[in-house]
Structures are given as C-alpha cells and as structure tokens.
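Folds abound. Consider this:
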Amino acid sequence: MSAAVEIVSFGYLHAEPPTAHLTIDLRHHFRDPHVRPELRYMTADDEPVRTAVLSTPGITDLVEATATAVAAFASGPSAGVVTVADGCAGGRHRAPTFARALAERLRASGHSVTVSHRDLDKPVVQR
C-alpha cells in the first residue's frame, strides 16, 4: 500500500529530535564522515560524503528495513502521513544521506515522499 511519507533529517547536537512515527538514530552504529578532515566541512550535497555514508556496512539494510516499517505503518486502519525522522550528530552527513536514500527507495515503491533537512545548512559542530 502506498502512503504519503514525510522524512526529516536532523542533528541531535542542534536540538531535540522532531516528532515522528519512526525515529532512526544513526549516531552510534555507523561511521561518521565528520572524523575525516577532508569530509568534515562537506555535506550530503557532496558526492564523497554520500559515497562514504552509503558504503558503510548496514546502511542499505537499514534503508530497506525502514522502508518495510513505513509500509507497515501505511497499512494500518488509521493510516495517514507517516513521518520518519533520522538523526546523526550534526545533521550534515549521515542523516541527510540516509533520508535521500530512503526517499528514493520509497518513491520506487509508489509512495509520495517529501524530504526536509532541518540541520544540513547549520555550521559544523566543533567536537
């Protein structure tokens, strides 16, 4: 069953997570491109960041699992818009890359998807 899906990427270091049906925390299990100096000031708008994130073991499996969860929410008797929030530390690398990959996967399944990136354009968090 197709559904309207809203995906919001964010950074935990900027503010509380947005309200969502599913919140995916990418901070602890997936490599952070921020630790590589050549990627630190790039964002998910840059191919090297997307490549680094999407080549991390487990990310594509998580995209698939999240798409399956969205389909489960959409099949419920009170189905409406399904909101997915996915966060990383700063919201510039992992979360927006994941959000875009999930959106692509969901659109391929016939879902109507909107994507927003709450923290993509915020300054790099110095840590």
User: Anything to note?
Assistant: The CA atoms of residues 53 and 94 lie 6 Å apart. Residues 4-117 form one domain. The chain has a mean pLDDT of 93. The chain has one domain: 4-117.
